[in-house]
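Researcher: For the record, we're logging two predictions in this thread. I'll number them. Prediction 1 follows.
Model: Prediction 1, sequence and structure:
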Amino acid sequence: MFMFAKGTLLAGLSLLAAAASAQTSSLINSSTRGVAGSGSNTMISGFVVQAPAGQLRWLLIRGVGPTLGQFGVTGTLADPSLRVYDRNGTVIAANDNFATAPNLALLNTVTSAAGAFALGNASEAAVLIGLPAGSYTAQLGAGTGTATGAVLLETYEFGSVAASQASQTITGIAASIGDFSTLTTALRLTGLDAALASGGPFTVFAPTDAAFAKLPAATLNALVANPSQLADVLRYHVVSGQVLSTQLTNGQVAPSLLPGRSLSVTLAPGSVRINASNVAAADVRAVNGVIHVIDTVLVP
């Protein structure tokens, strides 16, 4: 039989209670100051998001340079640029100048609620994105040129958000849905993942994996071997501005991002067609536009 002194037992119970509390706690903010620039001088920070199935976590990620001057920091990076990657290396969010963020009003609200200091220079970089459970990487570098300077890379977690809300960028949504793995890879190969993560608003007619599988193997392999041609095919699936299904009209012609090429809309009872492709699901909202899922790749 083992005997414990009362004080020893209470101390042990306190340690167990502390351990249990630690398991249910979460990290609210992480901030790292250093020197960053372009290329090999890019600052890189990895983080892991924990969230139940069907839920996202709001992440406010900021790359701060000039504003650090108000805290006495000299030699700051004049134009920070921020990119967020998923575990597969796809850019799911990007920003160079935070004032251009498509969800700027909400970003500013969360910034204040999280207790973060206000960004005092339009050249700072920031993204607000809802992320499912997984591992991610934030990379902070120079927006233009080869300059280096002092920066602050910050990550804030701010509550949960329903997965159905418009909380991710277009590329973030594509990367998080299993039916778009081929599209996600194609965007990454052409560098268009960053464009659809930072600009907008856009309307994307997104082919599923099954849609890409309809292409002859020789055609798909030729596109993969020629990133410029693949990029043209992808641009043909994108329209500038946010166009919801309720805004589509029969016979409508919409200029795509591929210069000189347009998409035609055909409406019939119970169906919507974009060129020769059927819309399988409509109005998947993103923070910088909307996705309509289609069942056939559109080849210009």
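Researcher: Logged. Prediction 2.
Model: Prediction 2, sequence and structure:
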Amino acid sequence: MAFIDSHCHINFPELAANMSDVLAQMRQNEVVSALCISVNLADFPQVLALAEQYPHIFASVGVHPDYEGVEEPDVARLVGLAQHPKVIAIGETGLDYFRLKGDLEWQRARFRNHIRAARASSKPLIIHTREAAADTLRIMAEENATEASGVMHCFTETWEVAEAALAMGFYISFSGIVTFKNAKQLKEVARRVPLERMLIETDAPYLAPVPHRGKLNQPAYVKHVAEEIALLRGIGVDEVGRRTTENFERLFKLEKLGR
């Protein structure tokens, strides 16, 4: 059995300070690889350093929509940084109308730059959307994000949004939120997304799944996400692990990881 955490932030201080334990817990829980996600250009060197140090850790490059007043990534800069062989994705990028209010045109312009960089570099997109699904899908369509493909990370939207993203060639990734008792709508989406288009993630250090809810999250806990999806779909957790691992390898154009 093997699992891959398709989205985590192990460079964040609360996890980076205990990296040897984080990696040991991954091994013990059969988590064979993790994608460490960039949220701004200032911290990208930390993300890349982890990917360079550990063969089973990969990196993305991008600026999260919540980061206002930071260095804006133009297309050329993103494409240049994405040339590193351990950088396998562009993002995380997208729109977030929950945390920030007012004129968010800068967010939409940043999102467009990431999509253009993904197309130019032939690297998939990691997309974050919160309370902005309509604009997210509209910009994806306008910028031909289908050409790049990618993943809707930490998915919490409706089946209709999932369907639209799937139609554009995107994968849907489920986090620990799917294990929460009150996440009824999300559980239904997890039952319906085709297995061949599904990924699992932690978004560590946030959103720890049941039975660790409220505690510090880590990549090892992605196994609990797989267990919940297996329960929802009436299949074995080994099948969820196998299929989501194969999906990760296919989307990010990687060789078989740890198998």
